[in-house]
Amino acid sequence: MSRLRYLFPAMLGTLLTSPALFAQEEAAAEGDVGFLDAIKSAGPIGALIIIMSVVAMALVIEHFMTVKREKLAPPEVIDEVEELFQEGNYQEALEACEANPCFFTNVVSAGIRKLGHDFAAIEKSLEEMEDEESIKLQQKIGWLSLIAGIGPMMGLFGTVTGMVGAFATISSAGAGGVNPADFAGDISLALMTTVLGLTVAIPTTAFYAYFRNRVTMVSLEIGALVEDLFERFRSA
Q: Is the distance from CB of 189 to CB of 158 less than 8 angstroms?
């Protein structure tokens, strides 16, 4: 798992820069246009897509740091709460949970506050808080899904804009014909925005799927821990 923490950001960076590197190598061979010129040809739409890629990278790094069991259910907090439960110090356990807010402690706190009620009420409170915490995590990683969906649409918008400009140039040329260089910029806009949009969308979609599965797995693990913790009250 520790290797994946560094592998995925590196893979995203590679995917984000590979088309640019390809364009740069091709340009160097032809001696016509450089990497920065190719990026500039994407215009404002391309700039927005690049900004989206930076945001996606920041989100991925942040999720690798926070969307994991060590952060959502710190082992030392779990041990402390379990020890207090074994001693019957439920008020102290509640205070410990409130002092260390996270997925695990928020769920446990909801259960402790229902102590004294029948087990069905406790269980319902735990399930509701587990669902709430899971939804929060799903919303948190949902921004990656949004970027992955907008990326290709931004690329398509740039493509349509470029093609409209190219045909407008051809139309305005009249009977004298048109030089391909006159609408080369529009064609470059169309192609570069498409490439940038897909380059952002593909790895971002992969990362979203990865974190979605991680959230599901961690939620199940924490749910099992909490269930074992409150199982003692089932027959009380």
A: yes
Whether 103 and 133 have beta carbons less than 8 Å apart is answered as yes
3-state SS assignment for residue 178: coil
**Helix/strand/coil for 42:** coil
In the chain, what are the domain boundaries?
2-71+132-233
For 28-69, what is each residue's pLDDT tens digit? 444 445 556 667 777 888 889 999 999 999 999 999 999 999
Angle value at C-alpha 39, between 36 and 44, nearest 5 degrees: 130
Longest dimension (CA), the chain: 93
**CB neighbour list of residue 148: distance below 8 Å, 6 or more residues apart:** 56, 200, 201, 204, 205, 208
pLDDT in tens, 146-200: 999 999 999 888 888 888 887 777 777 665 666 766 667 777 777 888 889 999 9
